[in-house]
Amino acid sequence: MSDKTAQKIILSADSTCDLDEELKARYNVNYFPLHIILNEKQYKDNVDITPEEIYQEYYDHKILPKTAAVNVQEYIDHFRPWVEDGYEIIHINLGHALSSVYQNCCLAAEELGHVHVVDSCNLSTGTGLLVVAAGKMIEQGLDAAEIADALRKRTSKCHASFILDTLTFLHAGGRCSAVAALGANMLKLKPCIQVDNRDGSMGVGKKYRGSLDKVLVKYVKDELAKYSDINTDLLFITHSGIPQEYIDLVRKTVEETMKFKEIHVTKASCTISCHCGPNTLGILFETK
Predict the structure, then answer these.
(1) Of the candidates 26, 66, 73, the residue with the CA atom closest to the CA atom of residue 49
(2) Inter-residue contact 115 to 82 (CB < 8 Å)
(3) pTM (2 decimals)?
(4) From CA 92, how far away is CA 259, in angstroms rounded?
(5) pLDDT (tens digit per residue) in 122-144
(6) How large is the average pLDDT for residues 152-169?
């Protein structure tokens, strides 16, 4: 873009990208929170409700929230002021298998123009990896269409997985049978949930047995050994609320296994946390 005037670009993302405050500020990311509906009351994810409040409601009353996508009009209202101010907007969505947000965002973009929508085909900081990549490309002076195209090609390089401590919440949310949940909990099985980076859907990978500390160490080593071409610029340790000792253990295991320029510990949004329950933790990174 050497001979062109640099575009004015806004970086926007669904709140489910789960960046920490430092990265959000560094790349000036504008969040759009998804909706959480609990006891017929609507909340904005991580704005006026927390994962801890959701867990407590389940423990007290066996009620889990419903999650609702951002609708077309909400996206239009979110983007319109920037479009009218002459900005190009890059918006990165939660994977299309998990929500209709991508579809709704595309409809809003069609109506407004100047909005470049990217389906992350991922969730949590698997999406966050693309948001950070977009922030870096904006700093380099690429134009919005170039950045969006580059991000779409990168989705298959973003790897997200996490270890579930309990199947209780997956079962309560209708995503796993009572028999499977009971069996796993009795056998102390901790499944690894793998995110399919072609659409963002989730599947069960390896099933680990044992205490959470031993399982997390084995899981980290397994995930980092899977790929020969890991991009060591950035790794996320993302959790749904877990004691600090486990986070420290995972960070230590990562650092002893591979050197990353940056490791960021982030907490998952309510949309992600309410399906997996407390003590869920994953490492998320890119390959080259």
Answers:
(1) 66
(2) no
(3) 0.93
(4) 28
(5) 999 999 999 999 999 999 999 99
(6) 90
Please say whether the beta carbons of 133 and 155 come within 8 A: no
Q: How far is CA 218 from CA 74, 105, 135, 170, 230, in A?
A: 43, 39, 33, 23, 18
Nearest CA among 217, 209, 275, 210 for reference residue 247: 217
Please state, in angstroms and rounded to a whole number, the distance separating the CA atoms of residues 133 and 253: 25
State what percent of residues in the chain have pLDDT above 70. Answer: 91
Q: Which residues of 26-55 are buried (b: 16+ CB within 10 A; e: fewer)?
A: ebebebbbbbbebeeeebebbeebbbeebb
Around Cβ 256, how many Cβ atoms within 10 Å? 11
H/E stretch holding 129 reads helix 125-139
Q: Give the angle 102-105-111 at the CA atoms, nearest 5°.
A: 145
Residue 180, Cβ density class (10 Å: 0-12 exposed, 13-18 middle, ≥19 buried):
middle
Report the C-alpha gap between 9 and 29 in whole angstroms.
11
Residue 12 DSSP SS3: strand
Helix (H, G, I), strand (E, B) or coil at 248: helix
154: helix, strand or coil? helix
Determine phi and psi for 264, rounding to 5 degrees: -115, 130
Work out the pLDDT band at 3, boundaries 50, 70, 90: very low
Amino acid in the structure at residue 280? T
269: three-class secondary structure by DSSP? coil
Provide the terminal-to-terminal Cα distance of the chain, rounded to the nearest Å. Answer: 24
Beta-carbon neighbour count of residue 174 at 10 Å?
9
**Mean pLDDT across the chain:** 91
Distance CA 128, CA 270 (A): 16
Say which residues have a Cβ less than 8 Å from residue 127's Cβ, sequence separation at least 6. 13, 14, 16, 17, 18, 92, 93, 94, 95, 120, 158
What is the arrangement of strands in the sheet containing 35-38, beginning at the earlier edge strand?
Answer: 41-44, 35-38, 66-68
